[in-house]
Amino acid sequence: MIEFENVSFSHGGGQVFRGVSARLAPGSFHFLTGPSGAGKTTLLNLCYGALRPQSGSIKVFGTDLKGRSRDQMAMLRRQIGVVHQDCQFLDHLPLLENIAMPLLVSGKEFSRISGDLKELVAWVGLSARADALPTELSGGERQRAALARAVIMSPDVILADEPTGNVDWEMSQRLMQLLTELNRMGKTVLLATHDLSLVRVAKAQVQARVLRISDKRLMLAGADL
Amino acid sequence: MSVSLITSVMRRDTQAARVVPPSGVTARLTVFVAAIMAYLAVFALALSLSAGRLADRWSDELAQTATLRITAPMEERTAQTRAALQILRQTPGVAEARALTQDEQAALLAPWFGPDPVLEGLPMPQLIELRAGTPPYDPAGLRARLAGEFPGAVLDDHSRWQAPLVRAADGLRLMALVSIALIVAAMAAMITLAANASLASNAQVIDVLRLVGARDGFIAQGFVRRFTWRGFTGALIGTGLAVASVVALPDMAEDGLLTGLAFEGGGWLLPLLVPVVVAMIAFVATLGAAQRRLRGAL
To answer: What percent of chain A has pLDDT above 90?
Structure first.
């Protein structure tokens, strides 16, 4: 699904990655761990083309991201659901329309899928908040709304960056449950977190691998976590 | 992309339009400035049309008539007049030539000397009025021929004072056209500034749309639609007010030399183009601003 080959990346603050190679198989569930500032968010951003590596190649769905036009990149993003740590919405539109935004931008008819949409909103437990504006939502509600928005196009890959960062333990459990359910449905999941207790709990529910960023490299962490 | 963009911008209320948040002050200012610019553009248009009419009228009416003045001793005058008339009538391009009678000449001088026949007995030059045909005669050639036969004859084809008038009217028309061009440029610059401000203040909207897979065309469309309609609405208001103002201007006497600031006949349709043109400017300016902005991002 996603292949990194000898990827190096640096920005103003210096080098972040050096010679990173990794391969995420379809249907796999990966945790991405590492200390704060190690480059977890950077790695996720590289996966969907929000950043470009200085060297090496990143292949998504078998094709190189390099040389893709902006429109081709847009098409790619419809197949990748992204949940950011600080999820952003269109703050002037109600939650329901925000969740349906990927459908709108890809030209899908809004009314025809409204039944599915309601189901999805219920699945993330936001039915009662459907008409609220994003700014009126709590951190946990925003995370769940972002997850619903990320999966509404039924993407093959879900990238989640600290989706449990702003929420309490109970809510993070609930979000993890949603992600593992998606993984069981066949989606490839890459979840960045610094919360190792979350990883431990999740490993009971799902066949997950742990990738660890350390010293500008990406390595498969031991099974002892 | 552009054709589908144009058609989607024309449809006023689609869901895609809502992705750009309504912004109060910028929107109102854009409408306001579009109205002012349209108002000025309609005036400049009226001015250019009126100046054009003036220039045409002056060059037409004055070019058609000319005067030949024969100054000769009394005894030769009648003979010279007759000979000159003969030459004039043979000259191609002269439609009509007629010697003014004594009474007519006295009437011409009456404003200066009064109605009393004080001039009788004074050696007055004989005036011959001639009217050009189509195509008109060649003044230089006629003048040379007359000068050979009658050394005291002067052909005045009014070009001496007609030319500066026509130049002035043409200059006025040019200034009006330059004003229209400047208004168009100012309009484009203003909309670009407003669109840039809107794009900058909606950076989050653009990021979110990009994240969920919106193509550049879709993102640009939201902004382009807003500014096109704002420009059109403002220009419609401004044009309406300007046309009303032109209509309300007092009528000038159309005495042949002057013309009022107004539209005539089909000219009244021209102001209707102003909102359309402003909408087109807004469309192009916003599209350009959006494309420049989006191209920079990943």
So the answer is: 31
B18, B214, B294 ranked by CB distance to A105: nearest: B214
Q: Does A221 touch chain B (CB under 8 A)?
A: no
Residues B16 and B111 in one domain: no
B204 in contact with A, Cβ within 8 Å: yes
Query: Using CA atoms, how far apart are residues B75 and B92, in angstroms rounded to an integer?
Result: 29
Sign of the CA dihedral A62, A68, A74, A77?
Answer: positive
pLDDT tens digit string along A46-69?
A: 999 888 898 899 999 888 888 888
Tokens matching residue A103: 């459908």
Average pLDDT of chain B?
A: 84
Judged against a pLDDT cut of 90, whether residue B233 lies above it is answered with yes
Domain count, chain B: 2
Cβ-nearest to B208 among A73, A78, A88 = A88
Residue pLDDT, tens place only, A161-209? 988 877 778 878 888 888 898 899 899 999 998 888 888 888 888 888 8
CA distances from A215 to A16, A20, A54 (A): 9, 11, 18
Question: Given B88, B123, B152, which residue is the final one in a domain?
Answer: B152
Residues of chain A with CATH 3.40.50.300: 1-79+157-225
Q: Which fold has domain A1-79+157-225?
A: Rossmann fold (3.40.50)
Among the candidates B125, B152, B179, a domain finishes at B152
Q: How far is CA A19 from the centre of its chain?
A: 23
- Quick one: B184 exposed, middle or buried, by C-beta within 10 A (0-12, 13-18, 19+)? middle
Interfacial A residues in 88-147 facing B (CB < 8 Å): 88-93, 97, 101-102, 104-106, 110
Specify if B148 maps to a domain: yes
